[in-house]
Design a protein that fits this description.
Blueprint (H helix, E strand, L loop, with lengths): L1 E2 L10 H11 L11 H21 L6 E4 L2 H11 L7 E5 L4 H12 L3 E5 L9 H7 L4 E5 L13 H10 L3 E5 L11 H4 L3 E5 L10 E5 L25 H16 L1 H22 L3 E3 L10 E6 L4 H10 L2 E2 L5 H4 L6 H5 L4 H5 L1 E5 L6 H20 L11
Parallel strand pairs: 1-11, 3-4, 3-5, 5-6, 6-7
Antiparallel strand pairs: 2-8, 7-8, 9-10, 10-12
Helix pairs in contact: 1-8, 2-8, 3-4, 9-14, 10-14
The protein binds pyridoxal-5'-phosphate (PLP).
Length: 385
Amino acid sequence: MIYLDNAASTKIHETVLKEMLPYLKEQYGNPSSIHRYGRNARKAVKKARKQIANLINADPSEILFTSGGTESNNMVLFGVKKNPESRIITSSIEHDAILEPCKILTKEGFDIIYLPVNNYGLVDPLILKNNLTENTSLVSIMFGNNEVGTIQPIADLAKICKEKNILFHTDAVQAVGKIPIDVKKLGIDMLSISSHKINGPKGIGALYVRNGISINPLILGGGQEKGLRSGTENVANIVGFGQACELARVNLLDNSAKMKGLRDYLSNKIIQEIPEVTINGHPVNRLPNNVHLTFLGVNGEDLLIKLDENGIAASTGSACSVQIQKASHVLKSMGFSHEQITGSLRLTIGISNNLEEMDKVVEILKNVIKELRSMSPFKEKYSFY
Ligand SMILES: Cc1ncc(COP(=O)(O)O)c(C=O)c1O
């Protein structure tokens, strides 16, 4: 198999797994316990917190462990202190882990604004500025889009919020570990991270909350994580997540350059060898591992099945949307037609992919697209084959 669905999840790194195993076997203590098992677990959690903080230039005291990107996003939307008239501004292309909480907040009477995006999936900072009111308590705009890979002008957006003293959160689940992120330099108040997108274990993530910001907890109990996220810490996952962040930090530039090289090679070759294809998302401001394409005359679901039969794991967009088969809200917001949305494919590269695989993918894709177009109701359009 050639795995090109790294935006959905990644393979756990060998070193990460090795670091985790002792905490699943002999080091099973509870970090709250006084004895040495507890002390060892506490020490491991402390080390991981520092490793995560280092990746984004935060202080360890600003890192809260959560069960992943979804919980981190929920924690921001529900946890930020608001008054009944509060406005919350987000974008129309966010992940459902932002959009679904927003639906609940709308029902509760909050004023939620969804900023539009252009054809590349970019939010315009000026539009954000024009939508800020005295009652705005939070702005949440994602860093890199999980479907089309477009990277937002985060520093500009954060600066606009800072000028008005409004909290700025970013869902950086797809961007962390792929591009350098310095929360202090970028002026970010809160940031969501997920471990399984960066070769760490699933079910663990973090929320960076700048010191000085006070939010309400979602989960109450024993008071772990400074009372903001109760429940015995998932020590093995935390250790693995910490190690994944450490590896991502040390290898960031190399990994990013490698993925970018493969991405550009793959996109160029697809354009050269397959007729009538478009590459979507911003041409420059994009995640180094994302290739998002539209093949007119092809049904994306059929394409995925054919690719799977031929040994390629890909996706049409957000992994979470596949089960409910809804048309991508991201592509709709970018102004795509129904036919364009239907014919879309997302290939996301990981740290272990190689050039030979890219060649194979293009070869298979070429044949599969030709075959699917020959069966299309609009097949006369593709008579050039
Ligand atoms: C942009 C974005 N936010 C949030 C999430 C959810 O993260 P997790 O799977 O860790 O809950 C994802 C996962 O696909 C994502 O791509």
